[in-house]
Design goal:
- The complex is a heterodimer of chains A (269) and B (332).
- Chain A has 269 residues and is mostly helical.
- Chain A has one domain.
- Chain A has helices at residues 2-24, 26-50, 61-78, 82-91, 95-99, 105-134, 144-169, 178-192, 204-211, 215-218, 220-227, 232-265.
- The termini of chain A are far apart.
- Chain B has 332 residues and is α/β, with parallel strands linked by helices.
- Chain B has twelve helices and 13 strands.
- Chain B has helices spanning 22-31, 64-71, 93-97, 116-126, 131-145, 160-172, 190-207, 218-224, 242-249, 267-271, 293-303, 316-326, and strands spanning 5-18, 34-48, 53-57, 79-84, 100-104, 178-182, 210-215, 227-232, 235-241, 252-259, 275-280, 283-289, 306-312.
- Chain B has a six-stranded mixed β-sheet with strand order 5-6-7-3-8-9, with helices on both faces. Chain B has a four-stranded antiparallel β-sheet with strand order 11-12-10-13.
- In chain B, helix 7 links the parallel strand 6 and strand 7 (210-215).
- The two termini of chain B are 32 Å apart.
- The interface between A and B is medium-sized, with 30 and 39 residues.
Chain lengths: 269, 332
Amino acid sequence: MTGTVDWLRRYGALLRAAWLQDLQYRASIVLWLLWGVTEPAVALGIWWAIAADGPVQGYARADFARYFFALMLVNQLTIAWDSWYLDSWIRDGELNFRLARPIHPAHEAVAENIAYKARTAGMILVVWLIVAAVWPAVRLPFGADRWALTAAAVLLAAALRFFISFATGLLAFWTTRATAIMELHAGISLFLSGRLAPLALLPPAVARVAGFLWFPYMLAFPVDLLTGTVHGAALVQGFVGQVVWLAVWVGAYRLAWTRGLRKYGGVGG
Amino acid sequence: MPAIVTAERLSKTFRVKVRDPGLKGALAALVRPRYRDVHAVRDVTFRIEPGEIVAFLGPNGAGKTTTLKMLTGLLYPTTGRVEVAGFVPWTGGRDFKRRIALVLGNRQQLVWDLPPEETFLLNRAIYDIAGAAYTERLAELVDLLDLRDVLEKPVRQLSLGERMKCELAAALLHHPPLLFLDEPTLGLDVTAQEAIRGFLSQYRERHGATVLLTSHYMQDVTALASRVLIINRGHLLYDGALDALVARIARIKRIELVLGPGDGVTAEMLAGFGTVKSFHFPNAVLEVRRDEAAATSARLLAALPVADLSIEDPPIEDVIRQAFAQGLGEDP
């Protein structure tokens, strides 16, 4: 029990520090928000134009609007920047004092994630509510069970993206190009995770490849859950996919962490 | 009392990629990488008792920081054994890390954009420091380090000296029995260096902590450490008291003279007493054999019109430079 209280206190302190740092740069908060809104807004604009003459594979204009508003929110709730932090920690030697403290450096990263997500997603939620008040198309189907399922899927997606980012950042133990690898991953995920278009609109062969990888579970699956377009077997399959890929990436992170530290410390080197 | 730090035949070898310059070299390194072993630390053995202040002394790249990193568990020794505060550092985990503080002169743990107090609060939670203990310790550190005026300024607005003071405060809030300080006065001006030294000796007196510091500022060592470990090119050259080292290496003493009024004293006359290092009337500096310093002084006083005379050890920097240049293999 005291263990739990200690951890709550530690996370409280880490979150406080993360939020206070955020508040130092109010201009950058606005910039990040704009960045988070622009990409889905541009994608929505394009599909809005394409769907002028009628639905595209079942997606009408209102469906696209709902999809990209949901995407905007879910993306901010699940995005992870940890590979960039880790890369600089490892290469600039800032990992040293973090390793000398009695707390795993990942906790600092998790706290930063929570702080960032709460702040940006909170703002996007406000924007959405205001837009929804005047534009019925972006309102969501409501149901407590669906909200609960969506929350679970968003949590799993956030964990998945965190471990992908953290594990990739740990490649900085071996290469100076860790962030380039993460950029490449982000580029692929633009198509395969549903950021540019709902996965249902991808060419069937591409959609099939995506289905075998982790990309749809990072974003598209929780977005489809939130907009109410996934049911039955697909819903179960989505959760199974999330859990399996999360386990794989947790494994990758653990491998990279222990091997990386041994490399860093020069075990047997 | 058992030693708080034991290092036995400690060695660390890094394998580094070597590459010829230019495009050809880059391609060759890509196809067939070549490696070279760099022996950063070789066969180093020492013990440190609780409460000691020990300084690692050596030029850049001597192996000081590598040794410190092995003692704190950041690096794994290639061969040899380390035990620190009852733990093998590499596998000591949280319990080990609570017993040490590591301060790196060139890397800071203070949160850059926030006032230092926020880092203190963070460490309070990370090290599970109880409220009352935190308040008491912070008050003591603020008092000893004179931090009242800087607590609320963002770290990025602090001077280098103020930052190092805050860095020390952040590292000591959990009252570690063992402090590792890597170049704690690096880049600081003389006043700030003295403030840090004053604090460290006071803190150690109050709390009896063991301190291991690396430095290439001799003043740090003379002011703080009773014992020095001199390390060069990975080898431990000397382990012992600073004055014993001076006695061992410095076979000479300097006699500084101020001659009285009147003339007639020439450099040739002074040369009869020892090696004349400088002579600008009325000041003269002679070097004589250590064991003859007293007798020579007496002869000088008897033979010449001397207004003032003092016998000094050569500057410690000269002694250390000599140690690095000649090694310490031979006995005095």
